[in-house]
Structures are given as structure tokens and as C-alpha cells.
Amino acid sequence: MEPLEILEFPDPRLRTLAKPVPEVDGKLLALVERMFETMYEAPGIGLAGPQVNFHQRLIVLDVSDKKDQPLLLINPSLREESGEIETLEGCLSVPGFYEPVTRSAQIQIDAINRDGETFTMEASDLLAVCIQHEMDHLEGNLFVDYLSKAKRQLIRKKLLKLQKQQAQG
Ligand code: QAP
Ligand code: CO
Q1: How many CA atoms lie less than 13 Å away from 151 in the CB half-sphere?
Q2: How many angstroms does the Cα of residue 47 sit away from the middle of ligand 2?
Q3: Ligand 2 mean position to 134 CA, how many Å?
Q4: Cβ–Cβ under 8 Å, residues 131 and 107
Q5: Domains, the chain
Q6: pTM (2 decimals)?
């Protein structure tokens, strides 16, 4: 399988507000499979539609050690959140950079599954962090937005330099 191209910060397309998935059909599920494969191959623990230039509210993740617990979230919405947790976060769209981010430690969300059915789930710790990180992507937000402007600008500069080098071959 050819992995999907992952947009990288500061690509302005990552700032696009994702629209609700209108319908769960075979075409969408085929993209979901490619997103899982792209995430596992990277390797990563989460990937959101906007990162692969698909601007609908779609998230794939797997925070398990054995990489055997794929989770698909379509049109997720936050119902409840509590507590605080600081995690060293990274992002497939910000390769090579990891910084601490504070988020809610426990969350409850609603989402739609691959059968088009709504479900509710609770998550804590790394799973909760990863879901919040991926839901940020649907709003066009990135973990670097939580850092100081100086840190964000430095990451931006370094990534632009790398991207230019890669474009030149
Ligand atoms: C989001 O991120 C996340 O820099 C998912 O060179 C990450 O899968 C939430 C990755 C950490 C919470 C904690 C990053 C792969 C993968 C890189 C990822 C890289 C290669 C990031
Ligand atoms: Co990310």
C-alpha cells in the first residue's frame, strides 16, 4: 500500500476547519483503512483527516502497545472532561519535535462507528490525550499552538528548512 501523504506544519491546509462526515459509506471506509495503514507504518498513535488533506471529522488511533486496538472516531464530540495531565506530545505533522502539553486527564465523548452507529466512550490518560490532540486537528489546531510563540516559531523555521531540503532532493 502506498501510504497517504501527511501534511506538515506550517502547511496552511492543516488550519482548515473539518466538516462533519455526511455519511459512512464504502468510500469513506476505504480511506479509513488507508489512514490506519499510514498511521501504523509511520509509526504513529493517531491520525486525523485534515493531516491527510481530507477535511472531514474523522480520526483513527491506536495507543495500545501491541498495536492491536484500532479505534475509529467519526464526528466525535466532547461530552465531559475532568482532571489535568501533562504529556510529552508529538505529531506526524510536526515530525521530530516533542513538547509537554497539559490537557484533561479524563474525557467522555460521543462518536459514530464504522457501522454508522453513535456510541459513547470514556477515556483516560494517553488515550484521552490522544483523542483531544486528534480532535484539535479537526478544528485546525495543532499541539504547537499550546507552546510559546518563540518555541513555535523555532519549530516552524526548522521544519521549513527541512522541507526545502527535501524538495530539492
Ligand atoms: C498524537 O502523534 C500524540 O515526530 C499522535 O518523527 C502523540 O502519532 C498524542 C510521530 C503523543 C499524545 C502523545 C511523531 C512519528 C508520531 C514524530 C503521533 C515522528 C514520527 C506522532
Ligand atoms: Co497530530
Answers
A1: 12
A2: 6
A3: 6
A4: yes
A5: 12-168 (3.90.45.10)
A6: 0.98
